[in-house]
Specification:
34% helix, SMODS-associated and fused to various effectors domain-containing protein, 5-stranded parallel β-sheet, Rossmann fold, 6-stranded mixed β-sheet, HNH_nuc, elongated, single chain, SAVED
Amino acid sequence: MSVTSISSKNKNLLWAVSAGRCEYIGCNKVLHTDILTNKKCNSAYIAHIVGDEPTGPRGDIKRSKLLANDINNLMLLCDTHHRMVDEDEITYTEPCLLEMKRQHEERIRRITDIAPNMSSEIILYGANIGINNSPLSYQSACEALLYDYYPASDNAIELRMKNVPFTDDTDTYWMMEEANLYEQFKLQIKPRLMQGNADHYSVFALAPQPLLIKLGVLLNDLNDVKVYQKHREPSTWKWQSVSNNIEYVLHEPANKTKIPVLVFSLSATVTHDRIQKALGENTSIWEITISGTPNNDFLKTETLLSEFRRTVRSAFDKIKFHHGCTELHIFPAMPVSASVELGRVWMPKVDMPMAIYDANKLKNDFYKTITIK
């Protein structure tokens, strides 16, 4: 494709709207820096969507001349994709290329619309769930941030303990993981908070629920934190804009004089016999559930997570009113973001101590793991 018909003004404009990256869908290659030497260079090709000659790719006897210097008819491409779109007119039709251009330039516009003060430090926290590792990546976290924030650093703050030889059916696992989480938080995050920095933090966590609750306690609700949820459908960490009409429901026990228990039947139903199996029948069981059927992918929006925080705060106050400052036994079956927010809602100087239980097949159901005082 000839570029002689393109004005310098439109060449510069195309570089600007494309951010100097290949506009072929999924490529996004930087075209102004050599990836091996890191030296500045120009490896870009300016391609005409409708060829600037009638005999060229997608050329037209009338439109080619009219669109030869039209910015809406130009794409910035790398060498590989420039050759591909020129050599295969059947696959790379005019509508196809126009859509690639639109998507790329719209994404660049939305990214650069983020205000300069909207940076966020990414926190990744993972711990083995049974024999399964927690798949967390800086790249997927960055994708979830956009288009509200941009990463404050080139690397995430990672709190996980790697190569753990124990599984979550052992007391050693819980002791080591809780100690590591506290130490990593003290080393990597607490100094930032002590300095009074107004940093924003974006949290991506996959771990057994007691550890997620502990993470939330450490972060607390005094800091500027946004917690993300791993969705299954669609598979993304990005909060969705639409959710089902779901409400949280707090079921109160008829007898409020026994051992206080708070059950979260959100991602699954926790039946009362499982609680009594762990603590006996001398229990007053409070339960937070949802208006629909509990499932592990209901928590789609930030609004629903905010409603969860308000529900938990109200439940804590009601339970303390009836039971005083005795230990509150927590039996959680809920999404990861809700687990972290439960910890953030809990106030150490006001709320009851929490004994957190975890469901484990090897332990024959729920057993006590972490105590938060």
